[in-house]
Design a protein that fits this description.
By secondary structure, this protein is mostly beta strands. It has one helix at about 5-10, and strands at about 25-30, 35-40, 40-45, 55-60, 65-70, 75, 85, 95-100, 105-115, 120-125, 130-135, 140-150, 155-160, 165-170, 180, 200-205, 210-215, 220-225, 235, 245-255, 260-265, 275-280, 285-290, 300, 310-315, 315-320, 330, 340, 345-350, 355-360. The strands form seven sheets. Strands 8, 9, 10, 11, 12, 13, 14 and 15 form an eight-stranded antiparallel sheet that branches. A four-stranded antiparallel sheet has the order 3-30-29-28, with no helix packed on it. Strands 4-5-6-7 form a four-stranded antiparallel sheet, with no helix packed on it. About 55% of the residues are buried.
Length: about 350
């Protein structure tokens, strides 16, 4: 058993179904662009399953992938009117927590867990067939999240093994993987690990920059690499930690400089003060929001082509910022675990009990 414990990493948080309030109507002011457009409203779709989806990949307004419990992977190509079950055969016992999609046909999914429960699958035909491209054989490793820089290069992260985070790398689109050397990785703090809560504990922007969110230790941190995971620097987060249930859960970068972090305490009913922050220097330092998210939030995403508007989601609602993360306000009370926006402006959110929503304007 690793310091943070299997229970924490296999977290199953939630407050039950909360009524959807389509109130995402705050104007989005993009600094320097004269942008003045409403943020999206959520419209629930019918997925036909009660799986909990923490993995989400928004390809466009019409195409998205979700991955979740009971080895479930779904794909839509018509804006959520119909969802096709494209789950890998024999994966019913796995917990999928991340999916990265290149388009409507090519996607990579990550299953989490100790030892061989951590696996990676890849499809090139829309989920009609899958190939297992990685299975973790180290009982001390527990993979949490993955990210891609482009169609070929990507990384996955495991909680610390022998005192350092372990990074897995691919250079062929997820067909094969190798463990990177850890000489450039700072030592992990006692009790430090990452949260497999939204597929956003490891995120990238551009061809080489990647960030890793942590929690559980005395101080939450955000680690940054500018060379695709070979060397890392660590910065202290302002989001409180000091407990296995607290820290940074989700990250989003709109470029290699401007980023957002959200988190808190995932346990229902626990206060999550100062649960959001922002950086303007690539994560070298972080500033707490003056009006933070209202409660624990596990997922965050910038609206495409906006320098200032973003959404954060959690089991008690959705918050929006229109000033780059300095202030947030609650705009929806539906339960979601993760959020993602596509380059064409289409945003999606997913969470417990098969809940997947798409944005409307």
């Amino acid at each position: 058993m690793k310091p943070m414990g299997k229970t924490r990493r296999m977290l199953s948080v939630g407050l039950g179904g909360v009524a959807l309030a389509a109130a995402l109507t705050a104007p989005a002011q993009a600094h320097g662009h004269g942008e003045n457009r409403p943020a999206p409203s959520w419209q629930l779709t019918q997925t036909g399953t009660d799986a909990r989806f923490r993995g989400l990949a928004a390809v466009s307004r019409t195409t998205a992938w979700v991955a979740g419990t009971k080895g479930t992977v779904l794909r839509t190509a018509d804006g959520g009117r119909h969802w096709r079950d494209v789950s890998p055969p024999g994966a019913g016992e796995l917990e999928f927590r991340d999916v990265e999609a290149f388009d409507g046909r090519r996607a990579v999914v990550l299953a989490i867990g100790e030892g061989e429960a951590s696996r990676v699958y890849r499809t090139e035909d829309g989920g009609a067939t899958w190939k297992e491209s990685f299975r973790n054989l180290d009982p001390k490793a527990f993979y949490d999240c993955l990210t891609f820089f482009d169609h070929r290069h990507g990384l996955a992260v495991s909680d610390p093994v022998d005192g350092k985070y372990r990074i897995l790398s691919t250079a062929d689109g997820g067909r094969s993987w190798k463990v990177l050397p850890n000489a450039g990785m700072p030592d992990a703090q006692p009790g430090e690990a990452s949260f497999a809560a939204s597929g956003q504990c490891l995120v990238s922007s551009g061809p080489r920059d990647v960030w890793l969110a942590t929690g559980g230790a005395a101080t939450a941190r955000v680690l940054h690499s500018a060379d695709r995971g070979l060397t890392w620097t660590a910065a202290a987060s302002t989001i409180p930690a000091g407990d296995p249930a607290r820290g940074v859960f989700g990250l989003a970068f709109r470029d290699r400089t401007h980023g957002l972090a959200v988190g808190g305490d995932y346990r229902a009913g626990q206060a999550s003060p100062r649960a959001s922050e922002a950086t303007g220097n690539g994560g070298r330092s972080w500033s707490p929001a003056t009006a933070p998210v209202a409660a624990y939030r596990s997922g965050v995403a910038w609206l495409p082509h906006s320098r200032s508007t973003a959404l954060a989601v959690g089991p008690t609602g959705t918050d929006a910022t229109t000033d780059g993360g300095r202030t947030w306000h609650t705009v929806d009370t539906g339960s979601y675990d993760t959020v993602d926006c596509a380059p064409d402006g289409g945003c999606w959110a997913a969470g417990e009990k098969g809940r997947v929503a798409r944005s409307t304007r």
